[in-house]
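JOB MANIFEST
job_type = single_chain_structure
chain_count = 1
residues = 428
[input]
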Amino acid sequence: MTEPTATSRVPVRFSGPGASSAPLTWGQKAILEDIRASGWTHNVTDILPLQPGVTAEDVAEWSANIMSRFPAARLCLGTDEAGRDCQVVRAGGELFMDVYDFDDTVDDAAVDKYTDELWYKQHFARFDLHSDWLMYTAVVRHRGVAKYWVWTLAHIIVDATAVSLIMSRRYGGEAADSGGDGAATDELSILDLGHREQTEPLRAVSDRAMRHWEKHLREIPELTFGPSTHPEGRKGERFWHGRYYSEAAYLAVTAIAERTKTDTSRVLLAVILIAVARGTGVNPVTAKVIVNNRFRPGLRRVVAPLTQDSVLAVDVADLTVDEVVARVRRVSTTASMNAYYDPDQLDALTASLDAERGSSARISLRINDRRVEAREAAEEEARAGLVTPERVAQARGATWLSWDGTIEHLPEQAFITVEDKPGAVLLQ
């Protein structure tokens, strides 16, 4: 792979309000369990092409604004007086932005490939959650022009919607302090949320969710798909990271959404469950589906990780795609209403059921639709109803599958995410 001609590090200094501590939020507890089970921090990372005229200094200023403006960006893990994990927001400090320079002799394709490799490396980079600043920022320059911004945030401070809120206000200034509807930024901070989830009304919400979980946990086998058919894995490696990209699939999904009068998230979930059932021979398919919980009062614009697992089971045997979509629409609504809970309470329930069964049962398929901006565009396309079989056929060439590398460990047998890619279905 072509290497940069030169590299440098630019200091990014910042300070902001809200320095204090609080109990972990439920979303943080859920992510921390994933981190400890898998050994990596489930980073949220992306490559942002830069507009002409944007400089590395501009990106450094954006990065400083993010760290200053949002308490979650200055967060790390700490320990409370009882020895339990807690969240700590720091007042300020300094991180370093990497700048990678490529000279005139390097072609564009080589720079793009290096940037993609940097994205992959940062996706699986490991933050020290107790001491690091949980943001990585870098600029790739080619022929003296800033071409890409590669950024990474640890999942314990954000989810996909929180990232969208941050990036929409990265420039600073008055316009950055409000959303498109003129609402103020954060009615509730990440620390406020940690305290709020200790109150009785939200404990009752968690109790209701446990009744839903118990019903499903009592019915599941020990593993979603049973023992591994090929435990040696692909090329001797058990866990692999791959990406699937298809513009034709995007058009097909929007056409199904228009025909069934539902949203593209439920269509994607339905067709993924059908593919899993066909590929494994397991039916009904039981899955954990990640819910962003933003529909709950007061949580729409909170910069914090609010995503948590829901649980659902769908029998797809002998059904058409439209029938599976209708079934998914029913069960996913119930699942979403029971996806906000204290993970410690779910751990206790699972342990109790394991003792009752005499064996451990786990749901090892997880699906996460992380789209934000691309979801809105897809819904508009579905409502327009302009997709034809001819358009789908013409787009089939814009489809690819890549195996990017191995992953040391995962708690699931399969973890499928739908990425925020406009105009295409991009699965990881």
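[summary]
Confidence is low (pLDDT under 50) at residues 173-186.
The CA atoms of residues 36 and 190 lie 21 Å apart.
exit_status = 0
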